[in-house]
């Protein structure tokens, strides 16, 4: 079993890269519903959770990134729904939140695309904060 992060095999690089691409593909399919990205990434993670360390690590990091975006997007989604279908009004706080979440999503999209490309080349990409959490969750099997 390959466990060296510096020397993943070709099929490992492809699977790890696909973990990031899965969320991008799901974004195109289910853009207005934040849960779609999370479910797609979770399914890919579950299918690869017994794979090599390199693949498991990147599947977990992709899942954690989608989880963080899910909470932000869900709150914005339901806030928007409440404005559309209730007496709630458009406020400066709402606009600021939507702009902030939009920028966060653009940053996450670019980071995910970059990670998919670099991981496919066999490079180990660690996201700030999420990489440390991933280290704690994914242990190398002996």
Keywords:
mainly alpha; 74% helix
Run of helices and strands: HHHHH
Mind describing the biggest β-sheet? none
**Rg on CA atoms, Å:** 17 Å
Q: Let me know the number of strands.
A: 0
Helix content: over 70%
**Inertia-based shape:** elongated
Q: Pick out the low-confidence regions.
A: none
Mean pLDDT: 87
The chain-level structural class is mainly alpha
Share in β-strands: under 5%
What is the count of distinct domains? 1
Distance between the termini: 9 Å
Multimeric status of the protein: single chain
Helix count from the secondary structure assignment = 5
Task: Write up what this structure looks like.
This protein has 142 residues and is mainly α. The protein has one domain. 74% of the residues lie in helices and 0% in strands. It has five helices and no strands. The model has no long low-confidence stretch (mean pLDDT 87).
Brief rundown of the structure:
By secondary structure, this protein is mainly α.
Write the SSE topology.
Layout: H1 10-29, H2 34-48, H3 53-85, H4 92-120, H5 130-137
Helix pairs in contact: 1-2, 1-3, 1-4, 2-3, 3-4, 3-5
């Amino acid at each position: 079993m390959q466990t060296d992060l510096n020397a993943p095999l070709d099929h490992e690089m492809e699977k790890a890269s696909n973990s990031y691409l899965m969320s991008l593909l799901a974004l195109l399919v289910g853009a207005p519903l934040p849960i779609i990205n999370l479910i797609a990434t979770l399914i890919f993670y579950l299918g690869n959770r017994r794979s090599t360390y390199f693949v498991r690590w990147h599947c977990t990091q992709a899942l954690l990134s989608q989880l963080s975006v899910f909470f932000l997007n869900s709150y914005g989604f339901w806030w928007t729904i409440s404005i559309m279908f209730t007496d709630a009004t458009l406020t400066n706080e709402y606009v600021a939140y939507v702009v902030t979440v939009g920028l966060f999503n653009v940053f996450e999209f670019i980071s995910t695309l970059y990670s998919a490309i670099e991981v496919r080349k066999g490079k180990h990409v660690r996201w700030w904060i999420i990489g440390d959490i991933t280290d704690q969750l994914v242990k190398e099997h002996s």
